[in-house]
Design a protein that fits this description.
Distance between the termini: 22 Å
Helix content: 10-25%
Largest sheet: 8 strands, mixed
Strand order of the largest sheet: 2-1-6-5-9-8-7-11
Oligomer: single chain
Strand content: 25-35%
Number of helices: 7
CATH architecture of the largest domain: Beta Barrel
Radius of gyration: 19 Å
Length: about 250
C-alpha cells in the first residue's frame, strides 16, 4: 500500500487543499488541519482510490486526508497503520456518510455507506508524503464500535473513578454531531446497569438526576464535590487528551 494523494482542510467552508506532505502529531492529528483536536477519534480520514473510481468521484471529494491505492475493506478498528518512516495511525471506525455527499451526487450518502473511508487517531508523530509506504503493524489497540450506541458504552465504561464528562465532551469523544444530544436521555435510560453513567453531567456541569438515579450520592462517594446540583471544581472533569488510548509508541 502507498499514499497517492494528501489533503489538509484549514478552514470550514473552504475545500481541502492538496499537498505534497503532512505533519502528524500524536494525540492531535494533522498539523494545521481543522480536525486536529486532542481527544477526537476523527483526526484523520483514510480513503481508497477504488472507491473514487466506483462512484465516479474526484480526489478530495470524500473529505479524505490520505488517499491510498488499496481497499479499506480489510481494515478494522484497533489496527495501527504505519505511514512513511515513523507516523502511526490507530484506526477508530468507519466514516459515516453525511448530507454533504449528496451535494456532490444525489443519493451518494446512501450508496456509499461503509465505503467512504476509515477514521483514525494519530498515535505517533511523523512526516508523511506522497508515495510513502503504508503497512499494517502488529500492534492492536481496543476496537471502537461503528454504531453510536456502542461507542457510548465503550467510552462511558472508561471514564475514570473520580472524574466526570460533560455531555458535549461525550459526543465529541464518540465522534458524533451535536444532533445526537437528543439521544443522550435514551442512551442513559437503556444503558447497562454496570456502566458508570453517573459520571456524565450536563454541558454546564449540572447533574442529570432526572435520568440517573442517586447521581449525586454516587459522585460524592467517589470524592467528587457537588455544590448547588453541579460539579463544584473543574479539576473533576476528565481531560480530553485522555479520551482515547494512544498506546506506548
Amino acid at each position: 500500500m502507498k499514499v497517492t494523494k494528501l489533503f489538509i482542510k484549514q478552514e470550514h467552508g473552504i475545500p481541502a487543499k492538496e499537498c505534497l506532505a503532512l505533519t502528524l502529531q500524536r494525540g492531535r492529528g494533522i498539523l494545521g488541519d481543522i480536525n486536529a483536536l486532542p481527544g477526537s477519534p476523527r483526526q484523520v480520514l483514510i480513503a481508497s482510490t477504488s472507491t473514487l473510481v466506483e462512484f465516479g468521484l474526484k480526489p478530495g471529494e470524500l473529505g479524505e486526508n490520505i488517499l491510498i491505492d488499496a481497499e479499506i475493506e480489510h481494515f478494522s478498528s484497533g489496527m495501527v497503520l504505519q505511514v512513511g518512516l515513523s507516523a502511526l495511525i490507530r484506526l477508530s471506525f468507519l466514516c459515516e456518510p453525511c448530507a454533504y455527499l449528496d451535494k456532490i451526487q444525489p443519493g451518494l450518502a446512501k450508496r456509499i455507506k461503509g465505503k467512504r473511508g476509515f477514521l483514525g487517531i494519530v498515535v505517533r508523530d511523523g512526516e508523511i508524503a506522497l508515495e510513502d509506504k503504508i503497512s499494517v503493524t502488529p500492534y492492536r489497540l481496543k476496537a471502537i464500535p461503528n454504531e453510536a450506541k456502542g461507542r457510548f458504552s465503550e467510552f462511558v465504561q472508561r471514564i475514570p473513578l473520580g472524574k466526570v464528562v460533560k455531555t458535549t465532551e461525550l459526543l465529541f469523544a464518540m465522534g458524533v454531531s451535536k444532533a445526537y444530544s437528543r439521544a443522550i436521555p435514551t442512551f442513559l435510560k437503556k444503558a447497562d446497569s454496570r456502566l458508570p453513567i453517573h459520571r456524565i453531567v450536563r454541558a454546564d456541569g449540572r447533574l442529570l438526576s432526572e435520568y440517573i438515579v442517586e447521581q449525586e450520592r454516587s459522585l460524592v462517594q467517589e470524592g467528587i464535590e457537588i455544590k448547588l446540583d453541579r460539579i463544584a471544581n473543574p479539576n473533576f472533569y476528565w481531560e480530553s487528551s485522555q479520551f482515547h488510548e494512544l498506546g506506548n509508541f
